[in-house]
């Protein structure tokens, strides 16, 4: 099969610094060229140090996901697909990934983001950048916009919720275990845009709760940006306080908006939320992240192959 007939797969993700030395450059990019203050940088570096303890495995999580997706696509359609990475805030940037596709002589590609839920401010931004570069280089591209209700994604997340629920049950006392589904907050203005992000997250939560037969759950937000505009709330730490006041003794954290171990999970939940739970005197456990879970790889591969049909048959 010639390269022209091969389908490129641009796997897009937020990106993470490659080492502690890169934290400043990474956050400068997030802040559109404005470097963080000395105080902000110190706090950020300390957060990374707290979770990685001197080694820096975060970038490897994305590399492993892309390699696992490639392996799954090779099983399903040998020699048909070639994966490339494109990151929002770190190298290789989204544009670099599209350029690599063009340089490999591949004329058609599918873009997918390592985030199941669509927002014009998140996934929409990735797609816009990829589309612009693809148009410039003459690569024909189409995109997976979301896969938040893919049966295999729901199945993988349900399994995780069930196993933690079982562990927490003996600690919950006379109240049920409270399940808190969460995702990265976005500025409140997305509601005015009729953005589907919030509804898609609720749909995923409902599907998992139904499959796991859990009635006592809430959706909450986490990891809001520190800007002057209002962000979607309540924050998980505030929700945890309310849950404790209501007499619950155990919280199951299900950060369904995230697909791998990184700062928002390893720091915001494993350190901050756990410290809050200790202060409140309640048990707190989170589900394992999807990372390279076979069901998640199937979700990505099947989503890519479904959308690939839009490119037309050769």
Automatic annotation (TrEMBL):
CDD domains: Ferrochelatase_C, Ferrochelatase_N
Name of this chain's protein: Coproporphyrin III ferrochelatase
Residues bound to Fe-coproporphyrin III: 14, 31, 47-48, 126
UniProt keyword annotation of RNA-binding present: no
Location in or out of the cell: Cytoplasm
Protein keywords: Cytoplasm, Heme biosynthesis, Iron, Lyase, Metal-binding, Porphyrin biosynthesis
Pathway: Porphyrin-containing compound metabolism; protoheme biosynthesis
Family the entry assigns: Belongs to the ferrochelatase family.
Catalytic activity: Fe-coproporphyrin III + 2 H(+) = coproporphyrin III + Fe(2+)
Keyword Transmembrane helix on entry: no
